[in-house]
Design brief:
- By secondary structure, this protein is mainly alpha-helical.
- It has one domain (about 1-90).
- It has three helices and two strands.
- Strands 1-2 form a two-stranded antiparallel sheet.
- Strand 1 and strand 2 form a beta hairpin.
């Protein structure tokens, strides 16, 4: 297949996906609203679990971190050698900036050029 028709095919597929995504938005919103109602009713009646004829709903609770002062968190991590609190991911924007400014390699990191395709409608 020639390049032009491949690009046009990609465009058509993307537009089909966008149409489906658009159709999903109201369903997703209705699901979120229904979920909130179920949580409210379960909480009001004081039970974590209830069933319909097709499914069971269960309230689960998980503790997650919500940072409100990064400076204090960073200080705690440094003072307690607590790098385990951080996700194992490098900030690509900061890495690129440092690489462009200094040109130096950072031990343990090798640059990788990820190739992507940018498609724009004509």
């Amino acid at each position: 297949m020639k390049l032009g028709p491949l690009i046009d095919k990609m465009h058509s597929l993307r537009e089909q996906k966008r149409a489906i995504d658009k159709e999903l938005k109201p369903i997703t919103a209705e699901m979120e609203d229904t979920q909130m109602k179920i949580l409210e009713v379960l909480t009001d009646i004081g039970t974590p679990t209830a069933s319909g004829t097709k499914a069971t709903a269960r309230i689960t609770e998980t503790t997650v971190a919500q940072v409100d002062d990064w400076a204090k968190v960073e200080e705690f991590i440094k003072d307690n050698d607590a790098l385990y609190l951080m996700e194992r991911r490098i900030s690509n924007a900061a890495f690129r900036e440092l690489l462009n400014l200094t040109g130096e390699e950072i031990p343990g990191i090798k640059p990788y050029n990820r190739i992507t395709l940018n498609l724009r409608s004509i």
